[in-house]
Write a structure and sequence with these properties.
Blueprint: E1 12-16, E2 22-26, H1 37-59, H2 64-81, H3 88-96, H4 103-125, H5 133-144, H6 181-195, H7 203-217, H8 224-238, H9 250-255, H10 257-270, H11 273-308, H12 313-324, E3 327-328, H13 330-337, H14 341-353, E4 358-359, E5 369-370, H15 372-379
Antiparallel strand pairs: 1-2, 3-5, 4-5
Helix pairs in contact: 1-11, 2-4, 2-12, 4-5, 4-8, 6-7, 7-8, 7-11, 10-11, 11-12, 11-15, 12-14, 13-14
């Protein structure tokens, strides 16, 4: 980390560690920030888009049908930023086959499944446990259990120095070195205090600042990026800005990955909070708008299928399950319907004849089917 890169001390300062390398210690939030007309306009657009999405989540007759696939999609995209290659279809098929995945794919899918578990656990905790250091440790425990980072003390803040840089880099050569362990807990304590500040900063700007500071402190040996992205959704839900967990920025970050990392670094090196916040607000605006459109499309499909099958009760009973996971097998249908194998098979045949399901394996055994319209709606790229 080159000390000369840090030309402005508005966000913190580089310090020399006892080991001889430089590390960055952030100042407590909030930083000085002048909200000009451009930033005010970006905030207004993001607020409007977020409010519309939140309102839509509250109006849908069965929003829980959308929550599960949204969470799975976010898990795939957020994990992809960290190098995981599992697709949404991989995750859904693994779920259908009850974990009997190819060994080469199992580790990636386990990481994505852990992300789903961490997100669901956080949503469950929020009503009784506010955003806090305790909550992020709980989330990290779920996220890192039994995967590549399981040796990185899941649920515990780091006891050694970490750094951010290309493979093979060291603290002496890394692009960025977070605060040393002996100052990290003070930084985290100040960060936690900032989480509890109310009615002093616009929620979305506070959320943008909170995210950068967490990524800068980098309190875990692994999983910081994923926890940091989860915190965005948790923050907005805790503040009542989201009625349902329907907004996730990983799609926007994945599409603009270089800009994302460059802007995080510019906050540290140049104190350039305004550029980062504009980027964050743009992401909220675009993702909230597109998530709303996606939710409407999924709701439209559900109503269309229900109308088609109103006189076919067994087939109708499978429709909602296709929005939770658009892949279906006779075994899964048997469990959902709590009926015999022939009855489940007959229900799937009805769905095939109505062009809702299509068999995709070509096998005579272990067959499964997909509702392509739902899968396409879920996999449609954001931004």
């Amino acid at each position: 980390m080159n000390q000369s890169d840090f030309t402005d001390r508005a966000s913190g300062k580089p310090v020399k560690t006892t080991q001889g390398f430089m590390a960055f210690v952030p100042d407590p939030l909030p930083p000085p920030l002048e909200i000009d007309m451009g930033l005010a306009l970006a905030l207004s657009k993001a607020d409007a888009a977020l409010s519309e999405l939140s309102g839509l989540g509250g109006q849908l007759p069965n929003p829980h049908l959308l929550i599960s696939p949204y969470i799975k999609r976010e898990a795939v995209l957020s994990s992809r930023i960290e190098g995981t290659k599992a697709s949404l279809s991989d995750l859904l098929i693994d779920e259908l086959e009850d974990g009997r995945t190819k060994p080469t794919e199992r580790d990636d899918i386990k990481e994505v499944r852990n992300y789903v578990a961490a997100l669901e656990h956080g949503i469950h905790l929020l009503p009784t446990l506010p955003l806090s250091l305790r909550l992020i440790r709980e989330i990290h425990t779920k996220l890192m259990a039994g995967v590549r980072g399981d040796k990185a003390t899941p649920g515990e803040f780091r006891h050694s120095q970490n750094w951010i840089g290309p493979a093979g880099s060291t603290p002496m050569t890394a692009a960025f070195v977070p605060p040393p362990v002996d100052t990290m807990m003070d930084c985290l304590g100040e960060w936690e205090k900032f989480l509890h500040v109310r009615d002093a900063i616009p929620d979305l700007i506070q959320c943008a600042m909170m995210h950068v500071q967490f990524e800068t402190i980098h309190p875990f040996l692994d999983g910081n990026g994923r926890v940091g992205r989860l915190l965005i959704t948790f923050f907005l839900m805790e503040r009542g800005r989201l009625s349902q967990p329907l907004l996730y920025l990983s799609a926007f970050i994945d599409t603009h990955k270089n800009d994302y990392f460059d802007l995080l670094q510019r906050v540290r090196t140049h104190g350039d909070w305004a550029s980062w916040i504009r980027f964050f607000l743009q992401g909220v605006t675009e993702i909230a708008t597109e998530a709303g459109q996606q939710a409407k499309e999924l709701h439209r499909l559900r109503e269309q299928y229900r109308a088609q099958l109103r006189d076919k009760p067994n087939a109708l009973a499978l429709i909602d399950e296709l929005f939770n996971n658009p892949f279906m097998s006779i075994g899964r249908a048997t469990k959902v319907l709590d009926k015999t194998h022939p009855t489940a098979k007959a229900a799937i045949t009805v769905l095939e004849k109505n062009q809702i399901l299509k068999e995709v394996t070509g096998r005579q055994w272990g067959r499964f089917y997909v509702c392509s319209s739902v899968l396409d709606a879920l996999e449609k790229p954001f931004t």
